[in-house]
Design brief:
With 831 residues, this protein is mainly alpha-helical. The protein contains 40 helices and 6 strands. It comes from Calidris pygmaea.
């Protein structure tokens, strides 16, 4: 008994000593402040290292690296150290004894230390974690999923298993960090319904958490990009998180966010302002090519003239150091900036020669597009591009890539078409989607038009190929039985070929699928109809009814675009008042969703339709609002900036004319003067011809004016005055003052004040010629803007005569005498 007691005490003391020793070693490893300290401990205690010690040591090595800036990390040194190899061997041998969390942590640590994805330890850890997948906690599962994502195992069976577990446990996930990691990791293996559940869960968690780290929001943007979904409600929530976290954002985060916004079709003037301020303050801190390229991309398009020049100058000096990717970024940004800096362009072209062979096919396509848009004249560079593109074309078997190459070859200067292009195009036609067919058609039409074929035989082949292409386009449309898939294909389809060949058939197919219009696709269909300028009552009526039925489920921003469709086409659906009132109620209750420039665009859309919600008008025409708008306009893209300014003027004019009770002043006098003084002359041959006929009809040149500016700066083609007996009155005899500025007659009562009275019963006549742009496609129905102009001219005291192009250009008015009779009838027949 005594012997047994002594054995037990000895065993207990040895166990306690080992435990204390182990705990001490764990503490020593955790307290290391440098990699060499960790390696020293490993070297001295190899025999005593348990699976726990190994896992902790590898984790500490990563944590030490994580604390350092990217450029100061020493991952290569760590991986090449003999004791790191020792740790990896020990981990591989002890993996079965590791705890679940330790396996995932170890895998994560070695991958962050840039161990090869297919290293034996990585493979063993993945296999062991896969075995224990069902029992991993949600945080450990998300970390493991992220490891698989970093290893590019996007479609592996294990990722499918992870997705299944997430599907089962989704309702129990309450941590947005865990969810965001899982979302991007499984994004390639989920169904549409599962995707929608993930989005709903993400929205819910973002709403429930006041403090969300901006990295989680970045992951959600990445998920939306991965699944190629433009879902603005969730992007807006992420944008608010970025604005709250502005002080924590660096150049890498800002560049990432701008890149994702561009891909997702989202823009935020407020974020642009914040980013511009942050980047402008740190412009002198970016001396290496990587961070400068990101600075150029993010700041360049919204920089003022002085900062812009600094950026361009630095880009010239740094050009030789740019990587192939950074060259693409700079050229893309130059295109967005509409930069024609010849010195920088020449420098980038010379640098490109050493990078061309490293680009894959789609990068070459984008590169060619940038150079053509920037008007590069380096023929040697284009010759090399042509050679490389031809090489890819010959070996390529992917229809989308083949179509992209053919489309971009058509952009090259002095390009001669070779038979290989015709044969490759013919080979992929049966597999092409509508967008790819459109790309090939655009190239063939251009080549045929400019006769760029080497041999006559090629020209004949091209015509036959175009006919085949048309047939495949019709076949693809006729097989369409899913509106969502059809709209997805039509997103990037436009141009001459589509308009002339496929548009009519496309509209017919959409009408056949009218019952498939839902709140999920109503916005996409509205975009398509805006693009095609087509007034199709059955589709428009269905859009209106679906919108009203789902008004509380459709995002206010989407409702704005739907209203734009009806406003622009000047179309009244059944129950028109109820439709607009329902939409306006939804919009005015959610004005906080809109940025200042978006509210201006919304106000203009409603004004064209004849609606002026007081809450919106009073909000826009407010000094603080207009000051905020001025600040945001400075960072918006040039085209959008010009459109907002123009629409603010139009809204101001509409409110002054139609809602005098709001007492909003007209404050666009200088803007309008500047626009008209900077614009080119508008006296075209048709106007001169008609003016001569009007002079003949009315009895002299002093009875008619050409290109007249009215009060509030409407320009009308012709103006004359008729007395109560329909006889013309001379401007000279009536002493009506007019200034002539660059061929434009401007009335002195331009602001509507101090207006010179006409004789009793006399009437001003505005004669307007309406071209095809004033009407819906293939329709005689007047669009919204021309209808508003007529309404406003009548408010200004005019009787308006509108001459449609389809009447003036008809066979019935083929002679001068017939045209004169037509004008007489419309001038004197006004009731």
């Amino acid at each position: 008994m005594l012997c047994l007691r002594q054995v037990c005490l000895f065993t207990l003391r040895r166990y306690q000593a080992r435990t204390l020793s182990s705990d001490l070693l764990v503490s020593q490893i955790n307290s290391c402040t440098h990699e060499d300290e960790v390696f020293s401990l490993v070297g001295r205690n190899k025999a005593r290292l348990s699976e726990k010690h190994v896992a902790i040591a590898l984790n500490v090595l990563w944590q030490l690296q994580k604390k350092r800036p990217l450029l100061l990390r020493t991952s290569d040194y760590i991986r090449n150290h003999s004791q790191f190899l020792t740790l990896c061997i020990l981990a591989e041998n002890k993996v079965e004894h590791m705890e679940d969390e330790a396996i995932v942590d170890t895998l994560y640590s070695i991958l962050r230390l840039n161990v090869q994805d297919h290293d034996s330890l990585a493979e063993v850890l993945v296999t062991e974690a896969w075995k224990r997948l069902e029992r991993l906690s949600l945080p450990a599962l998300s970390k493991f999923a992220l490891c698989l994502y970093k290893q590019h195992r996007h479609f592996s069976p294990v990722i499918g298993k992870v997705a299944h577990i997430v599907d089962m446990k989704l309702d129990s996930i309450q941590d947005i960090r865990v969810l965001s990691v899982l979302m991007i990791s499984i994004s390639d293996v989920i169904s549409q319904s599962f995707r929608d559940r993930l989005l709903h869960k993400a929205e819910q968690l973002l709403e429930e958490n006041d403090e969300v780290h901006f990295n989680y929001a970045k992951r959600i943007l990445q998920f939306l990009q991965n699944v190629k979904l433009r879902y603005h409600p969730l992007v807006e929530k992420c944008n608010k998180i970025f604005l709250k976290s502005a002080s924590c954002l660096d150049i890498h985060s800002i560049g990432f966010i701008f890149g994702q916004y561009e891909q997702l079709g989202f823009d935020s003037a407020e974020f642009r302002l914040v980013a511009k301020q942050l980047l402008s303050e740190t412009i002198d801190d970016h001396h290496d090519p990587e961070t400068f390229a990101k600075l150029f991309f993010a700041l360049g398009p919204m920089a003022g003239s002085k900062v812009r020049e600094r950026l361009l100058l630095t880009a010239v000096h740094m050009a030789e150091e740019f990587s192939s990717h950074q060259v693409l970024v700079v050229l893309k940004t130059m295109q967005k900036m509409k930069c024609r800096n010849s010195h920088l362009l020449k420098k980038m072209a010379s640098v490109l020669h050493k990078h061309l062979d490293s680009y894959h096919v789609l990068q070459l396509v984008k590169l060619t597009q940038y150079l053509v848009a920037l008007r590069c004249h380096n023929l040697e560079l284009f010759a090399k591009l042509k050679m490389l593109l031809f090489g890819f074309l010959k070996s390529n078997v992917i229809p989308a890539d083949t179509a992209a190459i053919i489309r971009v070859l058509a952009m090259l200067p002095s390009f001669q078409v070779e038979e290989i292009i015709i044969s490759k195009a013919a080979a992929v036609l049966p597999q092409c989607r509508l967008h790819h067919l459109n790309c090939i058609a655009a190239a063939l039409v251009k080549w045929n038009h400019y006769d760029q074929f080497h041999w006559q035989n090629n020209s004949e082949l091209c015509v036959k190929l175009l006919q085949k292409l048309n047939d495949y386009g019709f076949q693809r449309l006729q097989k369409a039985n899913n509106l969502n898939l059809l709209l997805e294909e039509l997103t990037h389809v436009n141009g001459e070929w589509f308009e002339e060949v496929l548009k009519e058939e496309t509209m017919a197919v959409c009408q056949l699928l009218v019952d498939q219009i839902t709140r999920a696709n109503v916005l996409q269909l509205s975009f398509f109809l805006i693009k095609t300028n087509d007034r199709c009552p059955s589709l428009l009526d269905r859009i209106a009814s679906v919108t009203v039925e789902n008004i509380d489920k459709i995002h206010p921003f989407e409702i704005c675009f739907i209203l734009f469709l009806f406003s622009a086409l000047n179309y009244d659906p059944p129950a028109n008042e109820a439709f607009f009132e329902s939409c306006i109620q939804r919009l005015t209750s959610n004005l906080s969703f809109f940025e200042t420039h978006q509210l201006v665009l919304l106000g203009h859309v409603l004004a064209v339709a004849g609606y002026f919600p007081p809450v919106l008008i009073k909000r826009i025409f407010n000094v603080s609002f207009l000051s905020k708008l001025d600040a945001q306009l400075e960072v918006l893209p040039h085209t959008l900036k010009q459109r907002v300014r123009l629409h603010l003027m139009k809204l101001n004019r509409a409110v002054c004319l139609e809602c005098p009770e709001f007492h909003i002043p007209w404050f666009h006098e200088r803007y309008c003067q500047r626009v008209f003084h900077n614009s080119s002359s508008r006296i075209n041959p048709l106007r001169q011809h008609v003016h001569r006929m009007l002079t003949e009809i009315l009895g002299g040149s002093n009875y008619a004016r050409i290109s007249v500016l009215t009060p509030y700066y409407y320009e009308i083609d012709f103006e004359c005055i008729l007395d109560e007996n329909k006889k013309p009155l001379s401007y000279t005899a009536q002493h009506i003052p007019l200034d002539e500025v660059e061929g434009i007659h401007m009335r002195h009562d331009i602001n509507g004040e101090g207006r010179m009275a006409l004789p009793p019963g006399a009437q001003r006549i505005a004669l307007e010629f309406l071209d095809s742009k004033a009407f819906s496609k293939n329709s005689r129905h007047l669009k919204g803007e021309p209808a508003v102009k007529k309404r406003h001219l009548e408010m200004l005291g005019y009787q308006v005569v509108q001459i449609p192009h389809f009447e003036w250009n008809s066979m019935g008015l083929s002679t001068k005498d017939e045209q004169i009779e037509y004008l007489k009838k419309h001038l004197y027949g006004i009731q």
